[in-house]
Amino acid sequence: MAGDTDAAITTTLIAAGKGDSAAAGHLLPLVYDHLRKVAQSMMAKEKPGHTLQPTALVHEAFLRVIGENEPAWEHRGHFFTAAARAMRRILVEEARRRATLKRGGDRARVDVDVVTIAAPRPSADVIALEEAVQRLEAKDPRKGKIVNLRYYAGLTVDETATVLEVSVGTVERDWRYIKSWISAELSDEDSCDSESRE
Amino acid sequence: MTPNPASDPTARAETIFHAVVDLPTGERAAHLDSQCDGDGKLRRRVERLLAEHDRGLDSFLENPPIAGMAAVPEPMPERIGQYEVTEKLGEGGCGVVYLAQQSRPVRREVAVKVLRVGVNTRQVVARFEAERQVLAMMDHPHIATVYDAGMTTDGRPYFVMERVDGVPLLDYCQQGELALRQRVSLFVAVCHAIEHAHRRGIIHRDLKPSNILVTQVNDQAAPKVIDFGIAKAIGGSPTEMTLVTETGQLMGTPQYMSPEQCTGRPDAVDTRSDVYSLGVVLYQLLTGRLPYDLDGTHLFDIPRIVREDPARRPSTFNKLLRGDLETVLLKALDKDRNRRYASVEAFRGDLEHFLANRPIEARRDSPWYVLKKTISRHRVAAMALAGFVLLATGTVVGLSYLYQQSETNATALRESLYVNAISNAEQAYAAGNVGTMKSALAEAPVALRGWEWHHLNRLTDGSLLHFPDARGAAISPDGSLVAATRLSAELTSENELPGTLTIYDGKTGAELHTLTTDDTAYPVVTFSPTGALVAVGGIRYHARIWDAATGEIVLELPTDNPSRHRASEALAFSPDGRLLLTGGRPPVVYIWEVATGTHLAELTGHSERVHGIAVSRDSRLVATSDSSGMIRLWDLETAELLSAQKVHQGMARGLNFDVETKRLFSCGWDRWVCVADVESGEIIDRWGPFDERIDGLAITDGGLAAVATPARVELRSVANGSFVRRLIGHDGAVSGVSLSTDGTRLLSHGEGGPRVWDTARDPTRFVTAKHNGIAEALACSPCGRWIVGAGCDKVLRIFDAKTYGVVSTRQIGTSRPKCVAFSPDGDLLAYPEAEGREVHIVRVPDGDVVTTLRHDAYVVSLDWSLDGSKLAAGSEDCRIAVWDLGNKRILSTVEGHHKAALSPDGTKLLTFNSAPRGTVISVAPAMRLWDASTGDLLRVFETDDSKTAAAAWTRNGQRIVTGDEQNRVRVWDAEDGQCLATLAGHTNNVAHVAVSPDDNRIASASYDHDIIVWDLTRYRKLLTLKGHTDIAAKVAFTPDGHKIVSTSADGTVRVWDGTPSTDPHVTTGSRE
User: Fold this and answer.
1) pLDDT averaged over chain B?
2) What is the pLDDT of residue B745?
3) Residue B71 and residue A12: Cβ atoms within 8 Å?
4) Scanning every residue of chain A, which has its alpha carbon at the shortest distance from the alpha carbon of B157?
5) How far, in Å, CA of B178 to CA of B183, rounded?
6) Chain-chain contact of A22 with B436 (C-beta, under 8 angstroms)
7) Which of B42, B66, B78, B230 to mutate to test the interface with A (most CBs of A within 10 A)?
């Protein structure tokens, strides 16, 4: 039978789907935990050096939670959004923690390691990226959602389009622009459109 | 939302980008020439995007970080709190469990459960603290003790529990191949443990096989129930209930959850929910399956199945269960908890009967009952079927009865939705969650919205002023002005996205000047120390300064190197107003002379963006903070760096010097407010950690601090950081705060626009005036203009019901005035004078005495009939006189009670007892109804032995509402004297009751300090008003029914506002 975690996610997803923001907050650790477990078990099976397909990962986690019977994109939408939020939050917190350690912060020892992700980019960039994504979200919520689903939740263009109920072409087009825009924002030169900065 | 390409340069750049990106590199230039039409800035922007596109073919964004998640296993911590971790015991969805060593006060092995990120640690730990005493009452060999709770250094909550070396119940039974009777015996032991907890008012709420471990003690199997961490005392306060709900959502396991838990109604959970969960556990123990077929079920459907589907017969899986055990199991699993075993004890009793081969108590469902259940489960189909059956037998009446039933069900559903929504909103308010509160209120059916809804709706925004579409804002030092920037949607010739700066009147919210800028409306705004100037940070300008009074530009500080200057993120005037300091990106602080605009100096050496600047009061020192958490001190005169210290982990902001330049306050994304000694640089105080990063901090010389995190704005004491109160109203992330110098006004800004607050005003606890001692006498004038209160200080105070200001005070000659009464038109007021032996009737508000009535004993109650014709006065010696106010003669005198309530038409007099404490009077407690004119006894209300403290008639004269000393509010039929309803909710004597003018609501005041609002037609508790800190003595509705006024032994008169407001969240300007 399904484990307790799955069940907890389910209850929470239902509550989150009804707009309970406290429940949405609870999703984060649960979804994250799931993703990590799935990733670990898949890693154990893979040969060293093999790169995990993120889409496979997030789907495996989803299937374990929800089951295969129903397409239920509405639920998938909740799940993937939650997964993206979890990833984002964890990445930023992890980056901050690393920055602390690197700078020889006042905390000599970290008691419990919250998350250990091989961060894809240096911690400073993760925070800069977070800020850039926030600006993008403020400017154009749809593009923000696309980054969340594509990058943080690892969905494909098609899946992103389905979750957002827009055409694949729209996502492709937006995505191409988003990539350039974010790269420009992250480079040290003058911002592309700095007035969006809060 | 897609930006309008015509008006937004960013959107235009995007359009052009898409148009040219697929062209060969050589052809792009020509297209750019034509599309950008000479706009160099636009062209540079597009070229940048194209360059990034060409360069970033394998952008890092194509490699989601999820792929890297598995790379490193989570390491085990060495210590958690004072506990030395030795090994990891297990990992679940909500956390990790470690085995650890405790050395003080005793050396023992413990299990430490650390919850994952994403929970509100402070709430969790606070909940445990609230629970600790209750949990400590449990002492049972089959219950694992929870010793302690705390927070790890990285802010996660942990629980320390008795270490149980056992296996989960199901595994134990399977591995040991236990026989049926052995399994039942083991389960009976579990029941004993739960009964022990239930007797102490603790419900487990999350019983499941994995929470029941079996250990071997002297070769005997001994079960241990773990995780009593989410248990809560039955009937806990609403706050506690909220927390339980949250945990329930976190920990709940739908397979084992009772149907009432699956409805998501936390208040519906009681000990019978545990009976149900135990039933599922036993079912699984005996059949190896769950009561419902969940294979292949979408997990979202489980709660519905649990609520609706019947449990499968256990004998289907195990023939041995046929008969009594099956009956017992199905009774424990009944959807209707009233048909379930009423207690674990009864459940366990039947299992013991089974083990002893005695007959069990539970009875199988009768065929009729099964049919009824089927009908209610399949209402539509059954209705058709029933219709057929009934028509066939000629019973048409029966059919319409069925229809009525379903209509009633719909009404009942709406009503329970409403009660649920109100209760959710009440809980969200207690938790400070405005978003949840608003969504809960939105769910309440419109037709049922009453006083409590409007009251809660008002509480969703406690601010004085709100500027919905503005970005950054500041309040002037004297609080008289507010400056706010907003982005303009209009396109200007410069092709910029321009904005406006608006100056508002800080009291009324009226717009004074709106100034268009040719720079982006940057959200960094500050007033000069005198409030005469407003400075706004920018991109094309380091800053621009306006005259706040005239709206004229005073000074512009354009950037000479626009590509280098990206934005001013921080601004500060020197306290003498002579200098302006700006800083941001690049990480340099520029010092300007305000009078001339001269660039005097630069503070260089920052490595990251500058986010905070503060100048000491003597204009000697400058403090700056940056995004790495460094705080630097500089000499303002020489621009020399004096010290640099890493105070925060991550972004540091909110710099404030105290008035003596002894302490420097700062806040940061590490969730701390730090107080540093300016001289030594030492951190001398820290407040926190807060739940989230801190983005804003402001302090006043008077010792008030305002702290803003995305989720909250809080007032604290500067002296020690102690919590003063929370300002509720923002439903989006808050990003900054400013305070007026005197601390009376606070401005907070962020998502959803800036708000101005009265720091002294708490919208729920509006204290009109402090009486010296308890104000036992209270009345609201029927005209709605006055509230009157009188207390032990021998002063009668008349308040203006709109402004709450004192209109007049009157010294009176009665040391403990217990009553006042307004005439129905509100022009006259009656109160006891001359130590209660006279009743004076005076004109309101001037106080001219109109009439003096004599009563020869101390008057303790007064009641004016609604038609104005009669006044009843009850005395301490239990005599009640009724005057005809036309001729000032006593119509009748009745004996036996202190207090009286005249019927609205003045014809009947209800009298009831309420002996002051310490007096011995032997009269019957029963209420009596008299003919007010003749004094003939009409009826006696049988009120058992409890004394009725208060009574009120409904306007229509049909009902009487009473409050008694057994904590009850009761509703009576005035005609036949029957008690229609007994409302339970208060936990101490009910002191007073009031009925709303529309006869729909009751308000009751109690010794438990609370006011409870009840539904008078449906007899339900709706809302508890918490705020009084001592006995609530009197309560009244204002004549329009919009406000509830209460007095208390805490000396205050409080007004609870439930005035309907169309939509308070979008108005600009004052709401009062």
Assistant:
1) 79
2) 93
3) no
4) A112
5) 6
6) yes
7) B66
Do the Cβ atoms of B672 and B638 come closer than 8 Å?
no
Paired sense of beta strands B640-646 and B652-657, if any? unpaired
Nearest residue in chain B measured CA to CA from A189: B563
Helices A73-102 and A4-17 meet at what angle, rounded to 10?
A: 110
> Cα dihedral angle (B760, B761, B762, B764), rounded to 10 degrees?
150
Chain A with chain B: Cβ pairs closer than 8 A: 284
Nearest CA to B206 among B146, B252, B153?
A: B252
pLDDT at A193 over 50: no
Q: What residues pair up with B699 in beta bridges, in sequence order?
A: B705
Find the closest chain B residue to A115 by CA distance: B74
Nearest-5° Cα angle at B732, B726 to B737:
55
Q: Do A1 and B255 touch (CB under 8 A)?
A: yes
Q: How far apart are the first and last CA of chain A?
A: 48
Exposed, middle or buried, B6 (CB in 10 Å: 0-12/13-18/19+)?
A: exposed
Contact by Cβ (8 Å): B527, B474? yes
Q: How far is CA B328 from the centre of its chain?
A: 42
CB burial of B997-1015 (b: ≥16 within 10 Å; e: otherwise) equals bebbbbbbbbbbbbbbbbb
Q: Which residues 54-83 of A are in CB contact (within 8 Å) with B?
A: 54, 57-58, 65-67, 69-70, 72, 75, 83
In order of B520, B538, B586, B772, the CA distances from B563 in angstroms are 15, 13, 10, 67
Whether A140 and B3 lie within 8 Å, measured CB to CB = yes
Stretch among A152-166, B438-452, B455-469 having the lowest mean pLDDT: A152-166
A100/B649 CB distance under 8 A: yes
**Closest residue of A to B158, CA-based?**
A112
- Specify the range with the lowest mean pLDDT, choosing from B148-157, B729-738, B877-886: B148-157
Query: B118 vs B489, which has greater pLDDT?
Result: B489
pLDDT at B233: 26
Q: How confident is the model at residue B20 (pLDDT cuts 50, 70, 90)?
A: confident
Which residue in the block uniquely carries the two structure tokens 């005469």? B532
pLDDT band at B759 (very low <50, low <70, confident <90, very high): confident
Whether the bond between B498 and the residue before it is cis, its omega within 30 degrees of 0, is no
Residue A142 Cα, gap to closest chain B Cα (Å): 7
**Residue B823 neighbours by CB distance under 10 Å:** 21
Question: How do residues B975-1005 score in pLDDT, each as one tens digit?
Answer: 888 888 899 889 888 988 999 999 999 999 9
Cβ contact, residue pair A40, B73, below 8 Å: yes
The catalytically annotated residue of B139, B206, B626, B846 is: B206
Using DSSP, how many helices (H) and how many strands (E) does chain B show? 17, 67
Residue among B72, B75, B153 minimizing CB distance to A107: B153
B1019 CB neighbour count, 10 Å cutoff: 15
Which pair of tokens denotes residue B478? 């004297």
Tell me if chain B has a CB within 8 Å of the CB of A196. yes
Share of chain B above pLDDT 70, in %: 79
Question: Nearest CA to B429 among B415, B443, B441, B420?
Answer: B441
As a whole number of angstroms, the distance between CA B1014 and CA B348 comes to: 38
- Our answer to whether residue B206 is catalytic in this structure is yes
Sign of CA dihedral A32, A33, A34, A37: positive
Q: How many secondary structure helices (H) and strands (E) does chain A include? A: 8, 0
Q: From start to end of B965-1069, where are the E strands?
A: 969-973, 979-983, 990-995, 1001-1006, 1011-1015, 1020-1025, 1032-1037, 1043-1048, 1052-1057
The nearest CA of chain B is from the CA of A61 a distance in Å of: 11
Residue B609 has pLDDT above 80, yes or no: yes
Q: Has residue B942 got a pLDDT over 70?
A: yes
Distance CA B627, CA B608 (A): 6
